[in-house]
Amino acid sequence: MPQLNPGPWFAIFIMTWVVFLLILTFKIINFNNLNEPTLKIIKKNKPESLLWPWT
To answer: A GO term (biological process) for this protein (predicted)?
Structure first.
């Protein structure tokens, strides 16, 4: 059964994954964000006090 002999395919499998991971990491590292994130300034307004007519 050739499936039990890892010699022919194991080296190809490892080399394929190494090349695949190297290509992916360089593509991810070279990725530039087109829209730079900006900080949202949240301004909290002071709530207005209620004027009760009976006080």
So the answer is: proton motive force-driven ATP synthesis
- pTM score, whole prediction: 0.43
State how far the alpha carbon of 51 is from the alpha carbons of 3, 44, 45, 46, 47, in Å. 84, 21, 18, 15, 12
The whole-angstrom separation of Cα 40 and Cα 26 is 31
Residues 6+ positions from 2 with CB-CB distance below 8 Å: 8
Q: 38-47 b/e with 16+ CB inside 10 Å = b?
A: eeeeeeeeee
Give mean pLDDT, residues 38-52.
Answer: 75
Amino acid at 34: L
